[in-house]
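User: Let's play a game. I give you a shape written as tokens, and you guess the letters that built it. Ready? Here's round one.
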């Protein structure tokens, strides 16, 4: 398998900056908590050791005071009593004579060491060893008589305390990390929701809904200020675009009347004159005027479509019927041009929109394919139901096609490929197609047909 086969697509939220900020927030918070608990653990460990040393010192001092006050026999009774009462693996006691013989206690005789020291030993009960050896902390003292007294505590008790604190620390750290992550995710989710609102609005504006604006939350924070500035910028851009569009529409509208008057004069002159050369010039001028009037008419029609006023007339209609009508009309045109025309239209595909505009859009696409394909080329038209039952239309040819770098430009007004500048046309046919598609929320995709061009309409 290739490397892409095993790739895993992470959920969208996981790939957001807000989620990364939440992870960073949780990591910093967890590290701070770890440092705090590490310090606490060290202090508890030190405190436990200090307490054990202090406890041994107090107990040895009490026994020495008992010896000073009541003598060796009383000390032996006290040590024996404490040894019998002590747990076998918790507290150790030893009283031995100068010869190293045990007088009392629950551990075997040992070397007489003074002060604090550690030693591995085993407890004795009833003359027998009880339990395994354990490491204990002892405090020893040599009596004036040469006898030796030692009291010890098993270090495992201190280790148990450290283990308990460590377990509490690990559990608390895990809970803290989860809470920090949850808090970061909640905070990030709110941030993402506001960014999503901005992105959705921007997407709709890019899609042609220029009146859309970013909603404000009323918090007057940085995002609200950014949204307000973006809205003001969009208002300014829309005003400029409307001004430019109005100028072009006014020019197209105002020039139609004098051009129409000029056309009528040329027609009257053509009817009156008998000069063949003058007649030819007049006919050529009439063709040019008709072309200009057609350009103005296309501009005005595109402007009308872009206002969105035609949406009020949207109705349910049979989209298959529109495709069949266009295929019947242009099948004969393709035959006259010695081209092959193929149609594959699925019956009964419904749509809601403007039937007249859809007819014009499809006619422009088919006419564009026929016009720019040579004799012997094949032009095909297809309509089918896509995912979810949504219509999918295709107009394809095996002509010269459109270079990939120019596919996004062909829908601009007056844009023409360099090779087509010598042919008839005004460069507005595909602009009208784009306007109708935008009005109906149809996504147009230009793809390579290998060879030729394929225009996909996703309703």
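Assistant: Ready! My guess for every position:
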């Amino acid at each position: 398998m290739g490397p892409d086969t095993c790739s895993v697509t992470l959920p969208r939220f996981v790939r957001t900056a807000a989620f990364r900020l939440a992870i960073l927030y949780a990591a910093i918070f967890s590290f701070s908590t770890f440092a705090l608990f590490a310090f606490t653990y060290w202090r508890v460990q030190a405190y436990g050791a200090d307490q054990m040393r202090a406890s041994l010192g107090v107990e040895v001092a009490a026994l020495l005071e008992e010896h000073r006050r009541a003598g060796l026999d009383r000390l032996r009774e006290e040590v024996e009593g404490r040894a019998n009462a002590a747990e076998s693996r918790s507290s150790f006691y030893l009283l031995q004579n100068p010869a190293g013989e045990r007088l009392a206690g629950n551990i075997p005789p040992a070397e007489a060491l003074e002060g604090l020291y550690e030693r591995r030993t085993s407890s004795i009960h009833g003359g027998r060893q009880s339990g395994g050896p354990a490491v204990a902390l002892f405090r020893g003292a040599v009596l004036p008589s040469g006898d030796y007294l030692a009291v010890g505590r098993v270090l495992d008790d201190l280790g148990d305390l450290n283990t308990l604190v460590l377990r509490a620390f690990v559990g608390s750290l895990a809970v803290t990390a989860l809470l920090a992550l949850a808090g970061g995710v909640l905070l990030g989710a709110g941030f993402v929701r506001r960014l999503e609102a901005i992105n959705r609005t921007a997407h709709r504006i890019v899609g042609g809904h220029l009146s859309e604006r970013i909603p404000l939350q009323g918090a007057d924070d940085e995002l609200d200020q950014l949204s307000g500035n973006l809205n003001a910028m969009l208002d300014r851009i829309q005003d400029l675009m409307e001004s430019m569009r109005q100028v072009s529409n006014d020019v197209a509208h105002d020039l139609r009347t004098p051009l129409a008057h000029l056309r009528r004069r040329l027609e009257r002159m053509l009817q009156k004159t008998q000069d063949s050369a003058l007649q030819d010039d007049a006919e050529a001028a009439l063709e040019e005027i008709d072309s200009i009037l057609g350009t103005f008419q296309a501009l005005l029609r595109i402007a009308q479509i872009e206002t969105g006023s035609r949406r009020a007339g949207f109705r349910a209609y049979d989209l298959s019927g529109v495709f069949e009508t266009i295929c019947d009309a242009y099948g004969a045109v393709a035959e006259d041009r010695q081209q092959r025309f193929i149609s594959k239209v699925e019956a009964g595909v419904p749509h809601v929109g403007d039937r007249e505009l859809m007819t014009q859009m499809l006619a422009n696409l088919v006419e564009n394919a026929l016009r720019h394909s040579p004799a012997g080329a094949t032009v095909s038209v297809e309509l089918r139901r896509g995912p979810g039952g949504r219509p999918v239309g295709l107009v394809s040819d095996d002509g010269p096609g459109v270079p990939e770098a120019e596919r996004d430009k062909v829908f601009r007004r007056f844009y023409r490929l360099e090779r087509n500048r010598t042919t008839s046309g005004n460069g507005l046919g595909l602009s009208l197609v784009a306007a109708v598609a935008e009005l109906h929320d149809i996504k147009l995709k230009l793809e390579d047909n290998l060879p030729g061009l394929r225009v996909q309409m996703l309703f």
